[in-house]
Design a protein that fits this description.
Chain lengths: 84, 84
Amino acid sequence: MARVVVDVMLKPEILDPQGRAVQGALGRLGLTGVSDVRQGKQFVIDIEGDLEGDRLALMHTLAEELLSNPVIEDYSMTVLEDAQ
Amino acid sequence: MARVVVDVMLKPEILDPQGRAVQGALGRLGLTGVSDVRQGKQFVIDIEGDLEGDRLALMHTLAEELLSNPVIEDYSMTVLEDAQ
């Protein structure tokens, strides 16, 4: 059993209005010194068996093309083997 | 400079239709053996200075009450000191 965690975040050069709104709200609620907030998505995917070779390559392809929009987003993928 | 990463995920007992849709799509696109997918949000927050004491407690409160909905979501928070 493998657990794959895919984090998808807007590229740094793309404006993030949701993050900007959160930054403003944090300040209004008393948290000082917040210099930047970015909001992204996280996918936690449980997969039976090991994730190796072709399946791992396919998972990377799908993370880039299905889970994220490569024009405006970057993704990072972490594979945890032997997850519960 | 501290970087705070807050991951917000639906509680395990709450249905996740977005995750279910992703699970179906992964299967149709050829990734076999996907047993579960959960979709959540990730906030990356850059804060000036150290995050300790009252400010850390306030950050926890805001993560629970502003960034997540404690009725249906869990959050986890990681503080990275000396982030770029």
